[in-house]
Amino acid sequence: MPVRYPSVDLARGAGLIGVFIAHTAPITAHTPFYIKWINISENVAAPLFTLMLGLSLGLLVSARSDGQSRARFRLQLTIRSALLVVLGLAAGMLGANVIPILQYFGVVYLVLLPVLFLRARWLLLLAGAMAIVSPLLMTAVQGAFANWMSAGGAERWYFSPVYQLAELLFSGYGYRVTGLLVFALVGLAVAKAGVGNRSTLVATSLGGGVLMLVGYGLSRLTAISAAAYSGTTLELLGATGLALVTFSLCGWLFAGQQVAWLRGVARVLSPVSALGSMTLTVYLLHIVVLGLWARTMPGINDDSWPMMFGLIAGSLVFAVLWKKFVGKGPVEWLMGFMAFGHRSWSSERSRLRTS
């Protein structure tokens, strides 16, 4: 069973709060600038969430028992992948005005299986290659389908399995597996380098800063967009950097626990860490809430400050109470039981000495 790193839980929790903001913040062109900055969640929420997916997968790899064959381990992860796809498709049927990401995560899990045991440097090279290839595939597939649809039979193409699979893998609006693989591969590489190592924190801080500078800086100097969900190489680079910097900040917070004020900050943020220990559960709950809103309040937008703050506050309270009195989130328990046979509801032991 993998050791829990509080920095990883904090980063996961921050990513999930970013998802809530991205899904419900009522940001418009008339929103004051000092409030509009929270719209950065659009740029970082999914990348950070996906980076943590790859990192968590890496922690599972390092926790694999010596006697367990790679084939059996991959089979367990395949079961986990299938569960994510099922949960994502089920979430999509709830009627919420958002695109669930879990089915994309399930496919990303599956695609990562052949590269699980590669060294960090090779994973980073693959991530760099995907950052170049993913936009090319997206443009090519979108162009091909546009041509086919303009030739007639648009409805037939749109509802065909070929189109739906292509949307999932290459050309979807918002998410696409090829783009998410960039973030997941980097997260897997970070886990291979050592989550608790200060050298890893230095590398993620500096590397993340450079990627942000390259991605968002070059976008300013060129006509290439780095806007959230655009899927361009510059967006993938900048968003990866933003996710790495966010993770490294969480890591430095727990690496400096000998400093009194940092210990205080960690205690204040402990509800966010609790949220990060059960992200799947709370993510699905927020989809349920948004789905119920869409069904019971038709025509009324769910983008509102009460909805955003309600989701954040309600999720933090739920996570703190559930973790205190029960332990693992129910969806996390189900995933562990179905894939690995873990029966205990108690949370895994946290390691507080480093990030």
Our measurement of the CA-to-CA distance between the termini, rounded to an integer number of angstroms, reads 18 Å
Structure classification: mainly alpha
> Which word captures the global form?
globular
Oligomer: single chain
For the CA atoms, what is the radius of gyration? 20 Å
Helix content: over 70%
Largest sheet: none
The poorly predicted ranges are 348-355
Given the structure, what is the number of helices?
16
Q: Mean pLDDT, nearest integer?
A: 89
* Amount of beta strand: under 5%
Count of extended strands? 0
H/E element order: HHHHHHHHHHHHHHHH
Task: Describe what you observe in this structure.
By secondary structure, the chain is an all-alpha fold. The chain is built from 16 helices and no strands. The longest helix has 31 residues. The protein is globular and about 65 Å long. It starts with 5 loop residues before the first helix and ends in a 15-residue tail after the last helix.
Which key phrases capture this entry?
globular, 355 residues, single chain, 16 helices, mainly alpha
Describe the structure concisely for a colleague.
The chain is mostly helical and 355 residues long.
